[in-house]
Amino acid sequence: MGETKRDSRPRASLRGKGREILLGERSASRAEPAPEEISPEPGAPDAERVDPGALDLTPEEAEALLDFSPASPVYQPSPSFDLDGFTLPEAGADEPLPETGGLLHPASPRDEAGLGARGGGLAVPESAALESTKSDAEPRSPVPVRQPPMSLYPGAMPPDPDLLDRLVDDERLNRLWDQIDIVQEELIHLVGGDRGPTDVYQQELLQASSMLLESRANFDDARAIVYRIRSDLNRQRKVTADIIRYRPLLLNYYVGCAIAWVVLMALKQLFAGVAEAVGVEIVGALYYPTLFGVAGALISGYVTLDRHTTRLRDFDPIHISWYLFNPLLGGVMGLFTFLLVSVANEDLLHDTASTAELAIAWLLCMVAGMNQNSVLGRLNDLLRRGRGSGA
Question: How far apart are CA 289 and CA 338, in angstroms?
């Protein structure tokens, strides 16, 4: 009878969140504030109390309940986060946070405006685009598109009146104004087939002069615009002089390499016979693949030279060594590609392959010579992965 009465009482269980809290399995990310205690209304009947004897504990729950050591999961503090200086979403916001790798970025007026204080280093505007002028066959980086001056010089804080009167006097203003006139006259004599750059420079000079006429406080911005145009004009002069000097020499070099290529193609039997007499018979099979790799390098070298001296006009003599060694490296790439292809088809090394198989192999050698930088990049990646896995 007593057991029946005891079983009729409400039973409590430590399943669910109570079990997680007791055993320390509750994660910090799922922590929830403790619910407020609701006091019964006056006059309401008291809720039926739960008899502690009705608790049904498993052995693990009983052991965790009686564990009073400092290492108990119950006494482990929850991780705390220092949120000073960080922005949090407004209360009740349903939108998720942007994906920032789990970090919250500090908010500041400078970040909101998108501009950096002057003197804080070079800031690249977010709207700056890169015009990809790089191919796998040339050692170039993407050329940045020329940005408007106000994106590079967004303006500064209002200057100090005393310093402005002392440093930016009438003499400096008149000198900068004269420089604008000099650059304007210089642009008249530096016109080219493409009038786009000239129109851009004219517009920026007009903007600089208008800023000077507007206020003496715009002296720094106007001077930055003028100096930027002067540096662009000096760069244009240097590039033009380098093109006039080095383009004919490199063209002659590639024409000479093309003539030598034709001669070597005709002397295949001579070189193969000498190699067989010496005992190196494989030279006959590797002869044409090497020359086809050289042919691909000559094509890519000429296309690259024409692009940077005619269309882009950003030729830099620092890359002359690449133009000189390009044919030799193309031959090495052609030879390497042919050896890789011969692994799958051994007939290529024994002169028993069909004409179609030879043509496909030689075409792959030419493509490898044209894209030698890409091939070298892939090989470098494989070597680094091999070293990483070996470590």
Answer: 6
pLDDT at 115: 33
User: Tell me: the pLDDT tens digits for 23-81?
Assistant: 554 444 444 455 455 555 554 445 455 454 555 666 666 666 566 555 655 555 544 44
Residue type, 126: E
Tracing tokens 């090989």 back to the chain, one arrives at 379
Sign, CA torsion 19/24/28/33 = positive
What pLDDT was estimated at residue 192? 79
**Residue 130, SS3 per DSSP:** strand
> Which residue, 41, 16, 43, 47, is CA-closest to 30?
16
CB proximity list for 375: less than 8 A, separation 6 or greater: 333, 336, 337, 368
- Asked if residues 47 and 40 have their Cβ atoms less than 8 Å apart, the reply is yes
Three-class HEC string of 170-198? HHHHHHHHHHHHHHHHHHHHCCCCCCHHH
**Distance between CA 78 and CA 29 in Å, rounded?**
10
